[in-house]
Amino acid sequence: MGQLREDIQAGLERDPATNSALELILTSPGLHAVWTYRLTNKLWKAGFRLAARLISNWAKFWTGIEIHPAATIGRRLVIDHGLGVVIGATSVVGDDVMMYHQVTLGANKNTPERRHPTIGNNVTLGAGAKIIGAIEIGANSYVGANAVVTKNVGPFSTVVGTNQVRHSVGSYDI
Known about the structure:
This protein is α/β, with parallel strands linked by helices and about 170 residues long. It has a single domain (about 1-165), classed as 3 Solenoid (UDP N-Acetylglucosamine Acyltransferase, domain 1). The chain has helices at about 1-15, 20-25, 30-45, 50-65, and strands at about 65, 70-75, 80, 85, 90-95, 100, 105, 120, 125, 130, 135, 140-145, 150, 160, 165. Helix 3 (about 30-45) packs antiparallel against helix 4 (about 50-65).
């Protein structure tokens, strides 16, 4: 129950358009997708992979958000609006991530190894951002709307356009 309460509190804190916990629970496709992911991830890890994929596809149909059951997602992920969000199988999403609609955490190769991004803690992914490949987005970073990121980004960075780091503290590889 603690994690469910955390999700509700995070949604209320980060979505100024939501007026109550009840409204959030009843109307947030992002919240529904995250909660369904948690179920499918447990099924995936328990070896019930077909059931996990069937349920995740049902959730994609109802929410417009695709989260692969094998992905690793931290606590308090908020997906605002959410339509068109895709989180691939080997993606890793840290704690307290804010993700807007049409974000893609995608692969750039078709192999069973790690091929999706790792998103650090306290990262904001703007609407339409595409983060592609087995790269890392450092903690406390911001990826702007419609940015295309294919190389590592250090912590405390702002990325806009095509892998253009605007502000950064620490090292990064672009």
